[in-house]
Specification:
This protein is α/β, with parallel strands linked by helices. The chain is built from eleven helices and 15 strands. A seven-stranded mixed sheet has the order 9-10-11-12-13-14-15, sandwiched between helices. It has a six-stranded mixed sheet with strand order 3-4-5-6-7-8, covered by helices on one side. It has two domains: 58 residues, no CATH class; 269 residues, Ribonuclease Z/Hydroxyacylglutathione hydrolase-like (Metallo-beta-lactamase, Chain A). It is globular, with a radius of gyration of 19 Å.
Length: 336
């Protein structure tokens, strides 16, 4: 089945030349994942592809939106790590880095209403590192203030319940004041139904099935990747992980593999005392190339990119040196 090859780079500062290059690459990769036999030409601007450049195709049921591709290093062009998978106008969030709801609002404004704040109702956390959870307050409270009436359905590793309890306790006065205000939000919508997970199937509804698998990430006892199966795609997210065989097993010719990465050349420039940590916590470009070669995804999407001073082009070259398949280095608000 052919999928929509629409790609947009939404709501970002003006950088038309870079958007054009990234847009063309993402468009080609999206066509590859759908088994397209021809590539569509797309004239991209900072706002996305020009509508006249897109040929009519059967609509895809699944869209991936990279809400945030950042790391703990503050980058004004990259929000904290967060991915949305939208299936049949229902959004599922994976991780909640800083800025997640505002990035979702940007995507909603530009054609994905499932990502409007009141409709953010399901979130999966890969692990509890702060850069992946700083936006949890945002996902709990902002959609509630904007009209969500049901609790957030939250899936995450052991410790997630304690984290939510601390957030609610620390914001108790705020919550009480808002509920008591005239026309304020309904009580209960600020809360979360927390599901602490292990390996295996953790969620299923009429649209998606989500399976969690353990990944090694520095000293964390509980860190997970996710395999997401929708009616028309299989998507695997690494979360934060050092090189390991679980990801290739979970992918196994999947449609899209979304994987964290750091630059080999950049790594050699960081202080020697810090190198062991990153080697135990994350995956180098050359290691990811080997994983992707074994996994054989139709599209490899890089996120949580740790450049350590290297350029994006250099990072991509390092991956492509060992992986012959389609690969894109994602930016915030790209769609696949």
């Amino acid at each position: 089945m052919f999928m929509t090859t629409r790609w947009m780079n939404l709501g970002l500062p003006s950088r038309a030349r870079r958007a054009a290059s990234a847009g063309a690459m993402a468009l080609r990769a999206r066509a590859a994942t759908a088994g397209a036999v021809a590539l569509l030409a797309c004239a991209a601007t900072a706002g996305g592809c020009l509508p006249g450049a897109l040929a009519a195709q059967a609509p895809a049921r699944t869209t991936i939106v990279m809400l945030g591709t950042g790391t703990p290093i503050p980058d004004p062009e990259r929000a904290g790590p967060a991915v949305a998978i939208v299936v049949d106008s229902v959004a599922y969030l994976f991780d909640a880095g800083s800025g997640v709801v505002r990035r979702a609002a940007a995507a909603a404004r530009d054609g994905i209403p499932a990502l409007s704040a009141p409709r953010l109702g399901t979130l999966f956390l890969t692990h509890l590192h702060s850069d992946h959870t700083l936006g949890l307050n945002d996902v709990l409270f902002t959609p509630w203030i904007q009209g969500r009436t049901a609790p957030l359905e939250l899936y995450g590793p052991p410790g997630t319940r304690r984290l939510v309890s601390g957030i609610l306790d620390g914001n108790a006065e705020d919550i009480a004041e808002r509920i008591a205000s005239a026309g304020g939000p309904a009580a209960g919508g600020e809360r979360a139904n927390v599901h602490e997970i292990g390996e295996g199937e953790v969620y299923r509804d009429a649209r998606i099935t989500v399976r969690a698998f353990r990944v090694p990430h520095s000293g964390w006892a509980h860190a997970f990747g996710y395999q997401v199966t929708t009616p028309d795609r299989v998507i695997v997210l690494s979360g934060d992980a050092r090189a390991n065989p679980a990801i290739a097993r979970a992918c196994n010719r999947c449609d899209v593999l979304i994987h964290e990465v750091y630059s080999d050349s950049g790594f050699r420039t960081i202080p020697a005392r810090r190198q062991p940590y990153h080697a135990q916590a994350h995956t180098s470009a050359s290691e990811l190339a080997a994983i992707a070669t074994a996994a054989r995804p139709k599209l490899l999407v890089l996120y949580h990119q740790l450049y350590f001073g290297a350029s994006d082009a250099r990072l991509l070259a390092e991956v492509r040196a060992g992986f012959a398949g389609a690969v894109v280095s994602a930016r915030d608000l790209q769609r696949f």
